[in-house]
Specification:
mainly alpha; 10 helices; four-stranded antiparallel beta sheet; globular
């Protein structure tokens, strides 16, 4: 490489260095832009607290029961479950007799069972596992006719002993026991998942629901739904459905009223209406 080329390269590098240095010096001499005041971003306002859900007003105060039903003080139950069950059992024996208690009632956790069953009757399912009464024994029977299967007239005979037992219970005494147990029933209802709700209102609503059970003029038609599965049930009658959609869509409680038969249902409705009359003593319209 000759001297002229080396000289040219040196000049280019020198000029480049001078240019870079001059640009850096010029940048340093420029006044800095004024500082902009930082604007603090305000945090979003806190969400307004949700308004507390107010329980509905009490419609049927337990204090409105018939005066004779309030003759005794509320029943104080021991904290220990077995002891509490023993106290309730003695009260029930005083009400209906020892034979009836052991034949028809399940006193193990009676308050919890009673509340859960009442609450479930207007629903699609009311599991017998939580009933305060012993499920009726025997086999559900049907009658075969030219139009298919219907509820058998003899099927209601299975329920006759229990219905007779219900009919024999003095309504005033039953309501009096209900009032004495009410603090435990209210507590069990709130523990079931209804804090602040009033169980007596729920009971009246369920009684009204059962009283509104339709009364078919003829035994309802039944059908056996198609069972899809590798194993066919050995007791197909447990799968029987009402052929009429309006009946099949009824609640568990109203279906029970249909299954017991028309005559038994009339007796049970009369008792329910009598109980309602004693509990709702204020004259509130149904």
């Amino acid at each position: 490489m000759n001297e002229r080329v080396i000289y040219a390269i040196a000049v280019v590098l020198l000029l480049a260095g001078i240019g870079v240095g001059a640009w850096y010096w010029w940048q340093q001499r420029q006044p800095l832009p004024p500082l902009q005041p930082s604007v603090a971003t305000a945090p979003p306002p806190p969400a307004a607290p949700a308004a507390p859900v107010q329980p509905p007003p009490i419609q049927h105060p337990i204090e409105n029961v018939a005066p004779e039903a309030k003759a005794k003080a509320p029943l104080a139950l021991p904290a220990e479950p077995a002891q509490a069950d023993a106290v309730v059992q003695r009260v029930l024996v005083d009400l209906v007799g020892r034979h009836a208690v052991f034949a028809f009632l399940n006193t193990d956790g009676f308050a919890r069972r009673f509340v859960a069953t009442v609450d479930n009757l207007p629903r699609k399912q009311a599991s017998p596992l939580s009933w305060p009464v012993v499920p009726t024994g025997g086999r559900f029977t049907t009658s075969e006719g030219k139009d298919g299967a219907t509820l058998s007239a003899t099927n209601s005979e299975r329920y006759a002993p229990f219905v007779k037992f219900v009919q024999s219970v003095d309504t005033k005494d039953a309501v009096s026991m209900y009032v004495r147990l009410y603090p435990q029933l209210q507590k069990a209802y709130e523990e079931l998942g209804y804090p602040g709700r009033y169980f007596n209102d729920r009971l009246i609503a369920v009684i009204d629901h059962l009283l509104a059970t339709p009364e078919p003029k003829a035994p309802p038609q039944l059908e056996l739904p198609e069972f899809k599965g590798p194993v066919q049930p050995t007791r197909p009658w447990v799968l029987v459905e009402f052929a009429e959609p309006s009946l099949e869509s009824l609640s568990a409680g109203q279906k029970i009223m249909l299954r017991v038969g028309s005559a038994n249902a009339q007796v049970l409705k009369a008792k329910l209406a009598d109980i309602r009359k004693q509990i709702v003593r204020s004259g509130a319209a149904r």
